């Protein structure tokens, strides 16, 4: 949701320029703040002995069909299963950050590397 001039808007689709602008101006567009979104995921890390163990656990939970990749649908339902609730915009923002090669899905390597860069 976006609030502009007292009005509430739901962003359904945006081009790369707009997404980048929103990420760069997270104070105005909090749903685009990568740091805030990753903080929601990081909360569960304290229950695990290392980041690697936590990443493996998360990947197993998120990868419902065990193909080694997490797509947007798996990402969304998996995070909800972990009691991490995000808006569609937040999910898209996170998927874009984790999906480093832009193929529309997250590999274990992409997942771990992104988490490691944020910790």
Topology, element by element:
Layout (H helix, E strand, L loop, with lengths): L1 E3 L2 E3 L6 H9 L9 H9 L8 H12 L6 E3 H10 L6 H11 L6 E3 H11 L1
Antiparallel strand pairs: 1-2, 3-4
Helix pairs in contact: 3-6
Folded structure, characterized:
It is a single chain. The mean pLDDT is 82. The chain has a single domain (34-118), classed as EF-hand (Recoverin, domain 1). Helices cover 52% and strands 10% of the residues. A hairpin with a 2-residue loop joins strand 1 and strand 2 (7-9). The protein has helices at residues 16-24, 34-42, 51-62, 72-81, 88-98, 108-118; strands spanning 2-4, 7-9, 69-71, 105-107. It is mainly alpha-helical. Helix 3 crosses helix 6 (108-118).
Describe what is shown at a glance.
The protein is mainly alpha-helical and 119 residues long.
CATH C-level category: Mainly Alpha
Radius of gyration, Cα only, in angstroms?
Answer: 15 Å
Please tally the β strands and state the result.
Answer: 4
Number of helices: 6
| Overall tally of domains | 1
Unreliable stretches (pLDDT < 50, length at least 5) are: none
Dominant shape: globular
- Portion of residues in beta strands equals 5-15%
- Overall mean pLDDT score? 82
What is the topology, as strand order, of the major beta sheet?
A: 1-2
Specify the structural class.
Answer: mainly alpha
- CATH architectural category: Orthogonal Bundle
| Terminus-to-terminus distance | 27 Å
User: What fold name stands as the CATH topology?
Assistant: Recoverin, domain 1
H/E topology pattern: EEHHHEHHEH
Main sheet, how many strands, which sense, barrel? 2 strands, antiparallel
Please identify which CATH superfamily we are dealing with: EF-hand
| Helicity level | 40-55%
């Amino acid at each position: 949701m976006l609030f502009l001039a007292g009005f509430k808007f739901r962003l359904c689709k945006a081009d790369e320029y707009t997404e980048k602008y929103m990420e760069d101006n997270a104070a105005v567009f909090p749903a685009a703040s990568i740091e805030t979104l990753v903080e929601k995921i990081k909360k569960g890390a304290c229950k695990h002995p290392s980041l690697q163990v936590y990443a493996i656990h998360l990947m197993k939970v998120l990868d419902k069909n065990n193909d080694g990749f997490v797509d947007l649908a798996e990402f969304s339902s998996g995070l909800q299963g972990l009691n991490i609730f995000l808006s569609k915009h937040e999910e898209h923002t996170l998927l874009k950050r984790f999906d480093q090669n832009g193929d529309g899905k997250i590999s274990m390597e992409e997942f771990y590397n992104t988490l490691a860069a944020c910790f």
